[in-house]
Amino acid sequence: MLNTRFTKLINSQTGAIFLVVLFVMLTANMSLFQHIVEIYPLNLRNIPFLISLSIFFSLLTALFFMAISFGRKGRWLIALLLIISAQAAYYMDNFGVLMDSVMIDNIIHTDAKEVEGLVNVGMVMHLLLLGVLPAWLVIRYWPTVNNISAEIKTRFLCLLLLIIALVVVVLPFTAGYTSFIREHKITRFYANPTYPVYSLIKYAQLQLKDKQQADITKTANDAQFTEGSIKNELVIMVVGETARADRFSLNGYHKETNPRLAKEDIVNFTNVSSCGTSTGVSVPCMFSELGRKDYDKQKALNQENILDVLAKNGIEVLWRDNNSDSKGVATRVQYEDFKTPTHNPVCEGECRDIGMLSGLDAYIASKKGKDIMIVLHQMGNHGPEYYRRYPKAFAKFQPMCMTGELRDCTKEEVNNSYDNAILYTDYFLSEVIQFLKKYDDDYETAMLYVSDHGESLGENGVWLHAAPYMMAPKTQTHVPAILWLGQHFDYNISQAEVYKDAPLSHDDLFCTLLIAYELDAKTCIAKREMLMNNLAIQAALTIEKRR
Predict the structure, then answer these.
(1) What DSSP line would sit under 85-118, residue for residue?
(2) pLDDT over 90 at 241, yes or no
(3) What contacts 205, CB < 8 A, 6 or more positions away?
């Protein structure tokens, strides 16, 4: 009799769900279990709790699958979840990333070029064998419900038993679970596919939020021109991509990655933090008035950013992009796409950042007598195929990693490929400075370079970027920032150098650009006072240490 009931269970949809859950836990949750073992190392003392946690997450996953699928049509949802699980597992296992709503946003906005860089044989085989094939088997062989009433009773009974089992599993280790829930929240986010599905739902909600808001909220309406030079401003801001501050030799890195910038009269800001850990967050955030703590994507998109404020005050604004896009920042200003040979004359398989300088002389000539703001959005160090980000002439550091499968390369190879891309950025920024020097007699010229975020290169098993900010390593949030000023600019290098070691962030960009164009607004007064206070405190601490 017991054998008969077991056979019926296996042949039922409920039984099939249990088999799917077992498969998912064994193939798509390696990162979850790896992080758990890092917290609770394998030893006799921890083994009982580790077994409890493994069963706990398996039971939760079973509850999730049981609750969302029923009937013959439910097999399509199960199949979709298998594919999502396999894809999420690949990126979590190989790059240590977390599939939160920010990562979902990055995936949604990944362009064809970026997809080409991410797709490789390993990823395709993983998806086919652990995602597509199991999904096809589910669709093809999913049990048919002959007795709906019996299936409902079985499903209800199983749900009840799962809940009871959860209680039984947790009770002996209440103190352990309390600590795990309070202290290791991030680890739970590696549960697959529950957290990726949650992130998808959250992302959809964020997209729908304030969707009906048509009017753009005005920002810095009180901005007024202060007394300044009679010359017009010509400022080029370079938005870097995936550059980490500790790989700039200007910041003490042992490889000479900034040979050209080292020869220029620049200010290298050593203590700058990013607003986010991904382009989709950092770029709109850095141009917004909101700041990191108050940043909300939809709110930022529905209010004027600093480029809008400059434009409405008569400054000519141009955004040139060799990356994916402006992430909504340049929606209301002139935008030019330099990712293809249509505009970019320097393309060799991939279009180079240096090509964004092409045609700028004609643009500046057409805006004679006007203040000009030009933003150049780099491809920079966009990974994982760092070796594609620079011409062969910049392959200085050898050997290099020549694949997007970073785990297949040695640490030295990955570092060399990444550092060569920094070397190319050094060249590009130097060329921007040389370009501006031509206009130094006629304009107040300046170049400001700030990277959007950093990058993890395998430290502690983490690769790439987009980690949740509260757990992100410093390599993803500590970014390089460089300033060059022409001879007629209102502020000189010695004045700017006061801030070179100050704790700065993307939050300071809004007011920095206002001041650069001799504009002032109430929103910047408090920020300036806070910065000056921080400098005073830092100076006092330095004096105290010397004593």
Answers:
(1) HHHHHHHHHHH----SHHHHHHHHT--HHHHHHH
(2) yes
(3) none
CA distance 219 to 223: 9
Helices (H), 438-468: none
Distance, CA of 381 to CA of 422 (rounded, Å) = 7
Q: Per-residue pLDDT for 543 more than 50?
A: no
Nearest to 80 by CA among 135, 152, 120, 119: 135
Angle between helices 47-68 and 74-95 (to 10 degrees): 140
pLDDT digits (tens, 9 = 90+) for 461-503: 888 888 889 889 999 999 999 999 999 888 888 888 989 999 9
* pLDDT tens-digit readout, 170-193: 999 887 887 787 667 778 889 999
Residue-level pLDDT at 297:
86
Q: How far is CA 284 from the centre of its chain?
A: 12
**Residue 190 phi, psi dihedral angles, 5° rounding:** -90, 0
Q: Read off the DSSP letter of residue 129.
A: I
| Neighbouring-strand partners of residue 372 | 234, 316
Instruction: Indicate whether this model's pTM tops 0.85.
Output: no
Torsions phi, psi for 436 (to 5 deg):
-70, -30
Cis amide leading into 384 (omega within 30): yes
For the beta sheet containing 232-240, the strands, ordered from the edge strand earlier in sequence to the opposite edge, are 334-337, 316-321, 372-377, 232-240, 443-451, 478-485, 266-273, 504-505
The Cα-based distances of 363 to 23, 321, 337, 370 in angstroms read 59, 15, 15, 11
Strands 478-485 and 463-464: unpaired
User: Quick check: helix, strand or coil at residue 275?
Assistant: coil
Residues contacting 200, CB < 8 A, separation 6+: 104
On average, the pLDDT of the chain sits at 87
* CA distance to 44, 108, 329, 370, 493, per residue, from 520 (Å): 65, 38, 21, 19, 21
Say yes or no to pLDDT of 541 above 50.
Answer: no
